Amino acid sequence: MNNNPLLTVALCTHNHVDRLERTLANIAGIQQPRSSWEFLVVDNGSRDFTPEFLRQRIWPEDWSVRVVCEEKLGIAHARNRAIAEAHGEYLIFLDDDENADSEWLRAYEKLIAEHRPDAFGGRIEVLFEDLRPRWLTDELLGFLGKLDWSEQIKPLTDSSTPLYTGNFGFRRAIVETIGLFDASLGRRGQENNGGEDVDFYRRILRAGLQVWWMPEAVIYHRIQAAKLKRSYFLDLHYRQGRMEAIRKRGQGPRIPPPYLFGQLMRAVRAVWSQWRHSGRDATLRKEMNVAYFGGQILGWAFGPRS
């Protein structure tokens, strides 16, 4: 085993043994990097067949593989455990519901050799496992993880062009400057939360570190039927609004600011107007705004103290 590999590829998983099996089968077939690397699986307290599946797994003979368990539930805890366990100079994250392009790791290897970035990310395409609903317009695909900032290899310097941890890597040493993933953010079990990756990315930029975009490193995010429901998008935005309000309110008064009620009413009127002119299939994006502001109001008034 090489204790100082260039790359650690880390896959965090929780109670998704069926998805995990497909992802591992895919990764076994891609082109391995020419540099030394290791594969790290972080089981985030799975209670299904995942632990047994990983114990019985027969890995490729030329792979360096480790499996660790992180019992603190939450994707941020799992990612922080990966940081602590990794041996690689660079750490690259992969989710358990993804397929990688055959040249995925070699594309990142090329980027590192040419630019020595502090952090980097690549293109994410969505791969539907069921029929795409009529109301799922292209503008909504970003909420399912689709990411495509440019066809060119280039630096990223704007906080409005975040990278997602479904296809994201960084020099492990940067956590000494920016800290770990915020454990108050991100998914916990079945809770449909997020934001830990965007927060991490923005801290990288604020620290003045170099972030590069690598479009040749492509990941395909498999979209399960459960995410092809309007309720998934509404719940996602309700939770985002609630979380942001709790953090913004802090220890302050629980009475929501009056402007939030005005924003909620304008959002409701926008839904009604869109419905009248274009029908229900065209209203979801505006319904998500209603859910977001409703979450902000309820989170401000009733959310726990941080």
Question: Any descriptors?
Answer:
9-stranded mixed β-sheet; alpha/beta; 306 residues; 9 strands; single chain; 38% helix; Nucleotide-diphossugar_trans; Spore Coat Polysaccharide Biosynthesis Protein SpsA, Chain A; Glyco_trans_2-like; transferase activity; 9 helices; transferase
Give a summary of the structure in a few sentences.
This protein has helices at residues 17-27, 50-56, 75-85, 104-115, 175-178, 196-206, 230-249, 258-278, 284-302, and strands spanning 7-13, 37-43, 65-69, 90-95, 98-100, 119-128, 154-156, 167-171, 211-223.
Could you walk me through the main structural features you see in this protein, from its secondary elements to its overall organization?
- Strands 1, 2, 3, 4, 5, 6, 7, 8 and 9 form a 9-stranded mixed beta sheet that branches.
- The chain has helices at residues 17-27, 50-56, 75-85, 104-115, 175-178, 196-206, 230-249, 258-278, 284-302; strands at 7-13, 37-43, 65-69, 90-95, 98-100, 119-128, 154-156, 167-171, 211-223.
- The longest helix is centred in the C-terminal third of the chain and has 21 residues, at 258-278.
- The relative contact order is 0.14.
- The chain folds into 2 domains: 7-227, Spore Coat Polysaccharide Biosynthesis Protein SpsA, Chain A; 232-302.
- It is of the alpha/beta class and 306 residues long.
- This is Putative glycosyltransferase.
